Amino acid sequence: MTGVPADWTAWRERLAARIEGVTPGSLLADDALRRKAALVLMDDLAAMHVGASHAEVIALAQSFASPIAPGESMTALGSRGPRDKVAAVNAAAAGWDELDEGYRPATCHGGLYTVPAVIAEAEATGRTLEEVLAAVVVGYEVVTAFARAFPAPRPLVLHPHATLSPIGAAAAVTWLRTGSAARVMQAVDVAATLSMSGPFSHAVSGALVRNAWAGAGAVLGFLASDLASAGLGGEPTGPVDVFAAGYGQAADDSELAGPHGSWAILDGYHKVYAACQYAHSALEAALELAQGPLEGRSVDEIAEVVVLTHPLAYSLDNRQPTTTLAGKFSLPHVVAAVLVTGRTDPATFGEELLDDPAVASLRQRVRLAPFEPLPAAPHDRPARLTVTLTDESATSLEAQVLSAVGGPDRPLEEDQVLDKITQLTSAAPRLASVAHRVVATRELDGEPWSVVLAEAWQR
């Protein structure tokens, strides 16, 4: 095809060389890398546990369960089914509450696109915990490389859960099956053509199909791996055709020309707020005001809230969210909920406050505007809140957060992520115990993943 970037072939070769000859032992000899991979794995398992409590996820799992066959792999609900369908359920659960791990250098959730597929494949094929960790690192490396190579425009038009998830799942599953860089790249060429054009606007409007895109990507990742193995291959330029020519996401020439740095998973972030990450700086600023100058005051005294925000959040302006997904992707709702309650725990962004009269009223008084000039990374997702009161002098209160907790300059420490896992999984306390052992020790590395998983999800 015409329009292929000059460095495309060399970039692909460098990416393949990055994972060529990698083994679980050689990769995980780096203790920092192993601990980070373990943290991503267990953080996403905790998110699956929380998401599995929702009625829609339960219904999805039930629809995939077979009354005849016991199934190859286990969902977060304890049911069993075919590995690809199990991965779909677990991916939907992991991303449901916006508590899964993410990746800041590009719009990509590397863990969500790899972990559900890897753990389903590993359980079905008798792989070890060590092999699971290595596959997550490799899959994460590949999918984030594509996310950086084809940066999405701002504000977002397509959702990365749809566009990128097949690539992450295909790369991770194929590497777990073959250990071959060449086979991984062949599967990725196929997976790119199976990419989905899920509109980002569906997240803002609250269409719950958005929560299924990562799961669909897991299914497509398995399919891409099978297709490539059977000889139904794609073209090395396929990702350019899809992302640049099809989606209009121009290739980043500097990314294609540059060398790979450290393993991408080391740049992953962990979230404590159950809302879209693009809203985190704004909700932190709202909390500062709610627990400071607004403490003890009625929100009826607020005339207006102006939120200066970054381009990724410009579209998060739904003032009448009707689903929890819409609420998590609504800056007016997130800010109003925090100002009304003075809280940021997961329940603050759940269903209970969607119809709260005080929150609903305050949402209408929240206005978004650009934060200008926009600072450079890591402060490229800032927020400044200005609250104007109804008193005679129109008192103005302001709070600014340049980078929310979890960002590159304010990362959650390992103990903080483990504490988060403990808090989220109180109904399954063995999961937190297993998480501590998996992250802090290597004593389970040689154990079958099925054994580790069964203990983690034991009620």
Automatic annotation (TrEMBL):
Gene Ontology terms, MF aspect: lyase activity
Domain MmgE/PrpD N-terminal: 15-237
Domain MmgE/PrpD C-terminal positions: 273-427
InterPro entries referenced in this protein's UniProt entry, alphabetically: MmgE/PrpD_sf (IPR036148), MmgE/PrpD_sf_1 (IPR042183), MmgE/PrpD_sf_2 (IPR042188), MmgE_PrpD (IPR005656), MmgE_PrpD_C (IPR045337), MmgE_PrpD_N (IPR045336)
Protein family according to the UniProt entry: Belongs to the PrpD family.
Protein known as: MmgE/PrpD family protein
Naturally occurring in which organism (per UniProt): Aeromicrobium yanjiei
Lineage: Bacteria, Bacillati, Actinomycetota, Actinomycetes, Propionibacteriales
